[in-house]
Amino acid sequence: AATLYVVATPIGNTADISLRAWHLLGIADAVACEDTRNTAHLLNRFGLSKELIAAHEHNEREAADRLIERLRQGQRIALVSDAGTPAVSDPGARIVDAVRGAGLRVMPLPGASAAIAALSASGLLGDRFHFIGFLPSKARQRETALEGLAALAGTLVLYEAPHRIADAVDALGRVFGPARQVVLARELTKLFEEIHRCTLAEAPAWIAADPNRQKGEYVVLVEGAPAGEDGDDADTDRLLRILLAECP
Ligand code: SAM
């Protein structure tokens, strides 16, 4: 049964743990996790207590060696991150790669991921999307990164830290133009969940309208560039169409 199970955990609402994940966490020999305190707390909420092994971004390689040793002894190990799906803008990929490279079995236990949850409730097209994860935190690098994304036709899915959300939305407006649709998905599955769709021109005012909106976790989704047009032309075109539709 030696297997590394990559287990998704809730992104807010505890009830989003899957029955399979609950069962597996119950029978695992140990749980490798990003933050032992956080995971101890999570397991406690499910009435579980397990040996925890720290496996965060600063020790992924050493952690992988230790896990491989235990897997070779026939153990079942669960790998979790603080929230959502491991290895999605979270540690985990290096461990999975090392375990697979050692010829050992890795199985995913799918569940919550903020990106997919946000996309599913955004109303933006989900048949083609680009997961960007976090943008660079420095303004210059962020704009350069965005310029490289402006002509993509699929929906863009970004993660952003609460203290940078206002700056990020400003930068999106500058680079993609004011007319593109954006969906701001905040505090998903939590008490103060909000999913707001507007244009990039309108987004800064929505964020500024409530101080709570400068807090909390965000997924930002931006509609893709219209097919066959490059960024600038596409935006001018869209803006003209919107203005024309408003004309009497
Ligand atoms: N591995 C996680 C996943 O599968 O979604 C992502 C981890 S990443 C370190 C954390 C980021 O995910 C946050 O900064 C935020 O952008 C997004 N996120 C996590 N939980 C969220 C939630 N409940 N609502 C909105 N965004 C969330």
UniProtKB/TrEMBL annotation:
The top EC class, named as a word, is transferase
Q: What subcellular compartments does it reside in? A: Cytoplasm
Q: Name one GO cellular component term.
A: cytoplasm
GO function terms (MF aspect): rRNA (cytosine-2'-O-)-methyltransferase activity
The keyword Transferase appears for this protein: yes
The protein's annotated catalytic reaction(s) are:
cytidine(1402) in 16S rRNA + S-adenosyl-L-methionine = 2'-O-methylcytidine(1402) in 16S rRNA + S-adenosyl-L-homocysteine + H(+)
Residues of the Tetrapyrrole methylase domain = 3-203
* E.C. number(s) listed in UniProt: 2.1.1.198
Keywords of the record, alphabetical order, are:
Cytoplasm, Methyltransferase, rRNA processing, S-adenosyl-L-methionine, Transferase
The protein's job, in short, is: Catalyzes the 2'-O-methylation of the ribose of cytidine 1402 (C1402) in 16S rRNA.
Family, per entry: Belongs to the methyltransferase superfamily. RsmI family.
Q: What is this protein called?
A: Ribosomal RNA small subunit methyltransferase I
Q: Which organism is it from?
A: Noviherbaspirillum galbum
**Span of the entire protein shown here:** 11 to 258 of 293
